């Protein structure tokens, strides 16, 4: 299974720096620190905050304005209020046979009654979701 580990502080700075390089829109001082503190580098959250601040919020779409700490705080609140998660992606994964086998085994406790245990690969795949 493939698992993307959490970003380091430097990774977040590099990722956000790519946005600045491509658009000319900088991030004010403290924004990278704030994002890293709020997300612990979790990739989905790091990207969701940037997307919200840079593309969804009207002020962030103005490339002549920097992304400020206030804007990033507002982006965080908007994500919380919308309850944005990637659970829909996880729900789709339940349809995969390998995920279904692991979850079914956990819920039914039928492993001792003729049902094969899920492979270690399948178990690791589900764990990393």
Give structural notes.
By secondary structure, this protein is an all-alpha fold. It folds into two domains: 9-84; 88-127, no CATH class. 64% of the residues lie in helices and 0% in strands. It contains eight helices and no strands. Helix 1 packs across helix 2, helix 3 packs across helix 5 and helix 7 crosses helix 8. The radius of gyration is 20 Å and the shape is elongated. It starts with 8 loop residues before the first helix and ends with a helix. The mean pLDDT is 86.
How many helices? The count is 8
Fraction of helical residues? 55-70%
Quick one: overall form?
elongated
In the predicted model, the low-confidence regions spanning at least 5 consecutive residues are none
How many discrete domains? 2
- Quickly give the structural class: mainly alpha
Strand portion, in percent? under 5%
Which oligomeric state applies?
A: single chain
Distance between termini? 9 Å
What is the mean pLDDT?
A: 86
Number of DSSP-assigned strands: 0
> For the report, how would you describe the main beta sheet?
none
What is the N-to-C succession of helices and strands?
HHHHHHHH
Radius of gyration: 20 Å
